[in-house]
Specification:
about 100 residues, alpha+beta, 7-stranded antiparallel β-sheet, 2 helices, 7 strands, about 30% helix, globular
Amino acid sequence: MDVVIAIDAEGLKDEAAFVTHLTSEGFEEVPDEEGMVFMGVSQTPVMHTRAYIFEVVGKALELSPAVFCNLVCLIGENPMESYRFNGQTSTFEEA
């Protein structure tokens, strides 16, 4: 199933490193979209895909910290809630 991730991050230390990590993990940046939007394909269940997205974006934030980071994603035909990265716990929490 197709996966779309929209990321709103402010104050990324190194945006190129952030984007490079996501692309190395199988997500392609969508060039004509405003902001950071990535697409990919998943063959795992929705909840596993969501966990993988959190892992990949969390690792990207370790490589390039940000003041804040929010994300929303569409997994197949399943829109997910909005999530905010908690830098203190290094986890995503429903916003």
